[in-house]
Design a protein that fits this description.
mainly alpha, flat, single chain, 67 residues
């Protein structure tokens, strides 16, 4: 299966029956990132975490008293 990176537009080949290929076929919302872009985003995210100013906002869940 040929896939295209959404950031750098590099076309790569992945196995047709791999889990990643299945996700891309069945769920159109998933996007493919090549390994270079994935590593670059991971590295930049880890740098932002290290600054201490990075916050993840979690959804506040309503507690049901009856359960």
């Amino acid at each position: 299966m040929q896939v295209k990176c959404v950031i750098c537009d590099v076309v790569e080949e992945i196995e047709d029956y791999s889990l990643q290929a299945k996700r891309l076929r069945n769920r159109k919302i998933h996007m493919y990132l090549c390994q270079n872009c994935n590593d670059r985003i991971k590295e930049n995210t880890l740098k932002r975490h290290a600054t201490g100013k990075f916050q993840l906002y979690e959804e506040k869940k309503k507690v049901d008293e009856l359960i």
